[in-house]
Design brief:
MetI-like fold, globular, mainly alpha
């Protein structure tokens, strides 16, 4: 009986994975047929096969620019994780910080990053640093807010038990609070990881010599629409790869959490 249930669950998981693939494939087929039937110009809307051909022909160029964007993305995401964890912890340990920082964090997200990015370029130049800062600004908010919410949902009875046993605040944080908040932390990190590549591309739009953002700008100005779409494909795959890496890290570091989910 247990093996039958496992087979059914595997079929369900396989079906849930295949359905989006079939939808994407159907869209690509319709796209290809529409371009072929209408005879639309390549510089207006290239067919999927032409985009694939551009991916192959421009592979060397795409690799060079992708590595630059990936470096900016990972550094910015790492900075966002550090800043987000610090802010969330300050909000949790101090009511004064909670009343002061929480509203400021929310207000910071009402300012369009596209309006702030040029100022960062003016202040920090056109090197890698401003792009890293832009990525961090895009990514830190979901990490900080989700982790702060996670700290608040930790079982208070566990904290009281450790306090009666003479545990220090650091021991309580290490043994109860942070492990209990980890699902929330990884939820925020998934969102941040998805946005991180976009943040790097925005920074590169405004001034860079390398990166997918500047490649997008140059390709669109040259009416190389097939290369624009090829670059977008790379950006999408990079974002999905970062999301997948975060998911793997979550499953490795929170095995107890996923085991509990499977039991439920």
């Amino acid at each position: 009986m247990k093996s039958f249930v496992n087979i059914v669950n595997a079929v369900k998981r396989w079906s849930s994975m295949m359905m989006p693939s079939f939808v994407i494939l159907a869209i690509l087929v319709l796209w290809e047929l529409s371009v072929y039937v209408t005879g639309i110009e390549k510089w207006i809307l290239p067919a999927p096969t032409e985009i694939f051909q551009s991916l192959v022909n421009s592979s060397d160029l795409l690799v060079i620019h992708s590595l630059q964007t990936l470096k900016e993305t990972l550094l910015g995401l790492l900075l966002a994780v550090i800043v987000g964890m610090i802010l969330a912890t300050l909000i949790d340990v101090s009511e004064w910080f909670q009343k002061t920082l929480y509203p400021l964090l929310v207000i910071s997200q009402t300012i369009p990053i596209i309006a702030v990015a040029p100022l960062i370029m003016i202040w920090f130049g056109f090197g890698i640093l401003p792009k890293v800062i832009v990525v961090a600004l895009v990514c830190f908010f979901p990490i900080a807010i989700n982790l702060a919410d996670g700290y608040r949902t930790v079982d208070i009875s566990m904290i009281r038990l450790l306090e009666t046993m003479g545990a220090t605040k650091w021991q309580i944080f290490k043994m109860v609070k942070f492990p209990g908040a980890m699902p929330f932390f990884f939820s925020g990190l998934r969102i941040a990881g998805t946005y991180s590549v976009m943040g790097a591309v925005i920074g590169e739009w405004l001034g860079a010599s390398q990166g997918l953002g500047i490649l997008l700008t140059r390709s669109s100005q040259s009416f190389l629409t097939d290369r624009v779409f090829a670059t977008i494909v790379i950006i999408v795959f990079m974002s999905l790869a970062i999301f997948a890496i975060v998911e793997v890290l979550a499953r490795v570091t929170m095995r107890w959490h996923y085991q509990q989910e499977n039991k439920d």
